Amino acid sequence: MKILGVSGSPIPDSNTDRALKRVLQATGAAKTEFIKLSDHTIAPCMACLKCIETNRCIINDDGNKLAEKAYKADALIIAGFTPYSSIDSRTKTFIERLYPLRHRHGLMQGKVGAGIITCAIPPENTELPPACDNGMQAIQNYMLEEGMDFVGGITLRGNVPCVRCGDNGQCPMSGLKMIHGPGATIAEIGIANFADDPAKLQELDELGQNIAKRVMGG
Ligand SMILES: Cc1cc2nc3c(=O)[nH]c(=O)nc-3n(C[C@H](O)[C@H](O)[C@H](O)COP(=O)(O)O)c2cc1C
User: Fold this and answer.
1) Ligand 1: which of 18, 22, 81 to mutate, judged by most atoms within 8 Å of the beta carbon?
2) 213 vs 114: CA distance, rounded Å
3) Which residue has its alpha carbon closest to ligand 1 atom 8?
4) Does the residue 19 lie in any domain?
5) Whose CA is nearest to atom 6 of ligand 1?
6) Among 91-95, 106-110, 161-165, 205-209, which stretch is predicted with the lowest mean pLDDT?
7) Is residue 165 situated within a structural domain?
8) Lower Cβ count inside 10 Å, N or C end of the chain?
9) How many domains are there within the chain?
10) 42 CB under 6 A from ligand 1?
11) Of 109, 142, 133, 134, whose CA–CA distance to 6 is shortest?
12) Does residue 197 belong to any structural domain of this protein?
């Protein structure tokens, strides 16, 4: 059993990365691989359709290597985050570059898939876009359109960049205040870390176990 996990988060050791590693570990698979897209060079699909006959993209970057890894894996877990409340561009680019695997054979068809999304806007805040849902929908759309077996998706609360910017709390563009109200402070909201939440850890472990079961035909 080989499970591939791909993270679109460029932040070192981010919630996105750590959650993905947790799920990979929980699969219990002998072969797992964690890929951080920011360590690779990958351009978006040119829509040239030169991949139709070959199932290979003509762009000479890391995209083909990553698509081959996805093709060789039994399961693919895609983890992204949500700048401006949609899926991040690296994750979207990676998904687009899996398009060559589609033509005439559906090379991802039937493979097990799952998603992880971190976002800063909590679902209870209905005044702002449903960031986590938007991100997860992008992953699910890809897996659905390729005929993959989507086992599940987990959303996690991540941090707005404002918690790291060092502002003295007066910034009129504060994302923290936009999301949590004008009186919100870093001290009050805190730095989100999913590992502080035992229920989330369990959810991640269960996703890993379910992926493994599904790969084994369960
Ligand atoms: C440039 C940037 C813009 C962001 N904009 C949003 C946003 O519009 N909505 C949202 O829910 N989260 C936003 N986030 C937060 C991310 O979705 C995510 O929660 C965070 O990057 C995860 O970081 P962490 O893993 O270090 O917690 C933004 C993050 C960055 C880096």
Assistant:
1) 81
2) 13
3) 84
4) yes
5) 83
6) 161-165
7) no
8) C
9) 1
10) no
11) 142
12) yes
Q: Which domain holds residue 124?
A: 2-159+193-215
Average pLDDT estimate for 185-203: 93
Amino acid found at 60: N
Distance 131 CA to ligand 1 centre (A): 9
Amino acid letter, 176: L
The strand pair at 75-81 and 31-36 is best described as unpaired
* Cβ of 120 less than 6 Å from ligand 1: yes
165 or 7, greater pLDDT: 7
User: Across-strand partners of 42?
Assistant: none
CATH number at residue 98: 3.40.50.360
pLDDT-derived band at 84, boundaries 50, 70, 90: very high
Is-contact 152 167, C-beta < 8 A? Answer: no
Average pLDDT over residues 79-105: 97
Q: Cα of 197 to ligand 1 centre, how many Å? A: 19
Query: Is residue 117 over pLDDT 80?
Result: yes
> Residue 185: inside a domain, yes or no?
no
What is the phi/psi pair of residue 72, to 5°?
Answer: -80, -15
Does residue 14's CB lie within 6 angstroms of at least one atom of ligand 1?
yes
What the block records as the tokens of 121 is: 């806007």
User: Hey, whose CA ends up nearest to atom 30 of ligand 1?
Assistant: 83
Residues 40 and 164: their CA atoms lie apart, in Å, by 25
Average pLDDT of the chain is 96
